[in-house]
Amino acid sequence: MGTSPDPHRFEQVDWNEVGHSRRFVTPARAVFFAGVVLLVGLYVLQRVDTVLLGVYFERIDWVILLGTVVLTSGVIVPAVRRRELTRRVLGRLVSRPIHAAGAVFLGVLSLVAVVGPAVFGSPDLMFQHRFHAPYGFTGEASWSAECLGEVTDGEGITRYCDGTMTYPLGTNHRGHPMGHLVVEGARTTLYVLVFTAAFVVPLAAAVGIVAGFRGGRIDDLLMSYVDVQLCIPAIVVFFIGYMYWNVSLLLLLVMFGLLSWGGIARLVRSETLQRREDGHVLVARSLGASPFYVAKRHIVPNITNTLVPAIFHLLALLVLVEAGVAFLGFHHLELYSWGSTIQEGLDPSMTGVGLVVEPHEVWWVSTFPAIALTLTLVSLKLVGDGLRDALDPRRNH
Amino acid sequence: MIGPEAGSDEEANRERGTDPESAASPLLEVEDLDVHYPITKGLLRREVGRVRAVDGVSFDIERGETFGLVGESGSGKTTAAHSVLGLEEPTGGEVRFDGQSVNELSGAALRAFRRRAQLVVQDPNEAFNPRLTMGEAVAEPLVLHGMEDADRRRAIVEDLLERVGLSAADADRYPHEFSGGEKQRLSIARALVLNPDLIVADEPTSALDGRVQSDVLALLDDVRREFNISILFISHDIDVVRRFCDRVAVMYLGEVVELGPIENVLEFPAHPYTRLLLGSVPSLDPTDQQFERPLTDTVPDPADPPSGCRFHTRCSEIVPPEDVELPWEQWRAVVAFRFTLQAGELPESIAVETADGKLDDATVRDRFDLPATLQDDAVDAGVDQAISAVIAGDLQTARDRLSETVPTVCEQRVPTATEHEAAHSVCCHRYDSTVEAEPRSWER
């Protein structure tokens, strides 16, 4: 043994020297705090009518921006800090082509939803260009006042108008390009995803963990609340809100989001109950770990097998609910959701243009958003399953 | 061996900075420890009873000593260990570590205690978080105690892994890639990384097979010697305890029934329960089956423990009342009959026949090894009535008749711990000078 103590032997560690400093400023907290300060600053600037970047944020936009801050500090910062693990998990996620495809689709969707509206802007109403067919297809020329493509004669007085590259995906009854509508729908969908992931999932996980960990009266109270909540149909509450307040996406997200987390909370609770007596949890507790540390480090990572697919299922469910409610027509008029666009395409004679148009004749209006919606739901499911497998070190591909 | 320098105790003491005065007192003192769990009912959680998991347990552990805690499952040994570590809030009594009450610690003193007392858990398969690499898991105590230098943690862990017989590269592997024995070595490494004074080992070898068991015990013993660590060793396996411990306490239903040096307790067991435990160790020698069977096999519910001596319902050495004149075999048959009825452990043949109404006196007597007549008239009359009640299907009357007929001091009075020999205490009426009963001889 050497004369100077070797700092790399456990019995030579001088614990008085190591000391115990509880760090309050972690990178995640710093990012969260900075993000919130930034948002408050922007909000104040907007309130005093200093128009920034020519963008005016609505209330829903602020909520989603806050959600983005939450997700950045809660998911992206830890992912960057544990680069090795992130790289491994992502590598495993994309190692199966089908999961990779789902992940790529969701990535493209998010990118289009963020960048798209800024790039394409918001086109004016062009009633003269309504029901233009997509490029390479034809529609009846009599539907629109002006045909941009070539007009060909059909039987009798029928004339057909070819689709053009001006509207590569065609237009709807208001003359809105379908590409624009799909992009706007992607933005709505992204809003749903961000809101759910940033607010609903943490709430569900927190309630489940607290109930499972603390047990006793708190558990009884929280779980009976969840039982009550599971009995309340969110759609009824939404309609009550719809009657009394202005309808908005925010109302829908709050009503459905905050009434739909009970299932995940229960799942998390039962898993927590199973894990809290595990040896490694006992050892961590005997070392003086706080309940928050134990939950974060020992409970949550070990329940991803059930939690991750459940989260992605909830995300898919809420995207579908939003589309469904919009399909029924209970959406904000200026908000172009895939659901409302599908409905317009399926029932063109109800859209008030005074034309007799069969849905199949304007198939592009409903088909493109429907494809986008379907791909989104499939991708969410695939990525959920893929992420579950990728997070589990015991699964070998 | 753990390290190149077989550190002397002297050196270990110096490093720990223990002055001679505190070295004189035991490292860990457990005094009259109670851990009761309330049984609650209804919305308002009204307490309707208590599970006395640990009830008045006292022992202490010297520095560098290995202290065993044995007992059947459900005897409260794990709960006792958890409350030693402060994982379980005791409902009564006190645990003192280095002279300080563990439950009153806070701040830096509590952190120091958490560093100096470590836990090794039973099942190696759940001892490690499946989502952490072994390096992260073994370094976790360092992180929790504020060591922020990741490179230093890594170096310490790699050094330690090699010293417990694994390789530094194992730090990057996940728990599922290790065998049970390797995991238990890692478990010991994790308990060692903060350089503790006490390791609580909760059945560390019960999930392992023979040879691996010996390896792990040898490692634990090396660690203890080299770093002068005290070990609280919990086990239901009396053979492992015999090989490993210096002193032992035997627990039954939350109470310590016998405590003493290992060679005394295991070679000359005084308490009937210890004798039962020793007798139940399987042996290859067919002639070695002479131990007495317990009266009943059911361990009573800790929520409703038997009165007096908690072991009396199973005790094969139960003390007869002074006025009863029966040969030992007959006395034993009568009390076995009584407590079998009480525990509801009726042999199936009798239970079935009760329903049919075809049971007769001879069958019952045969089942319970009761002779046709007993030498004591009063007892004989009582047993006759009890048997008739069993035949009539009225078990409650049978139980009442029997408890009136053969009362025993064991159910009436709680035995106190008596010093049987030097440093060897027993909790049994047969060692109590006020009770007229001699300890029975015991031969293995």
TrEMBL record, chain A:
List the membrane topology term(s).
Multi-pass membrane protein
The segment(s) forming the ABC transmembrane type-1 domain are 186-384
Among CDD domains, the record links this protein to: TM_PBP2
User: What GO cellular component is one of the record's annotations?
Assistant: plasma membrane
Q: Which UniProt keywords apply?
A: Cell membrane, Membrane, Peptide transport, Protein transport, Transmembrane, Transmembrane helix, Transport
Q: Which GO terms describe its biological process?
A: peptide transport; protein transport; transmembrane transport
Broad class of where this protein is predominantly found: membrane
The record's subcellular locations are: Cell membrane
Q: Where are the transmembrane segments?
A: 30-48, 60-80, 100-120, 190-213, 225-244, 250-268, 306-330, 362-384
The reply on keyword Protein transport is yes
Q: Which SUPFAM superfamilies match?
A: MetI-like
Gene3D superfamilies attached here? MetI-like
Q: Does the keyword RNA-binding apply?
A: no
**Protein family membership:** Belongs to the binding-protein-dependent transport system permease family.
Name of the protein described by the UniProt record:
Peptide/nickel transport system permease protein
- Species assigned in the record: Natronorubrum texcoconense
Q: What is the lineage of its organism?
A: Archaea, Methanobacteriati, Methanobacteriota, Stenosarchaea group, Halobacteria
TrEMBL record, chain B:
Q: What are the BP-aspect GO terms? A: peptide transport; transmembrane transport
Q: Which domain of life is it from?
A: Archaea
Q: Which UniProt keywords apply?
A: ATP-binding, Nucleotide-binding, Transport
Keyword Hydrolase present in the record's keywords: the answer is no
Presence of keyword Zinc: no
> What are the boundaries of the region Disordered?
1-26
What are the recorded GO MF terms, alphabetically?
ATP binding; ATP hydrolysis activity
Give the ABC transporter domain ranges: 30-278
- NCBIfam families, sorted: oligo_HPY
Regarding protein family, the annotation reads: Belongs to the ABC transporter superfamily.
Q: Report what the protein is called.
A: Peptide/nickel transport system ATP-binding protein
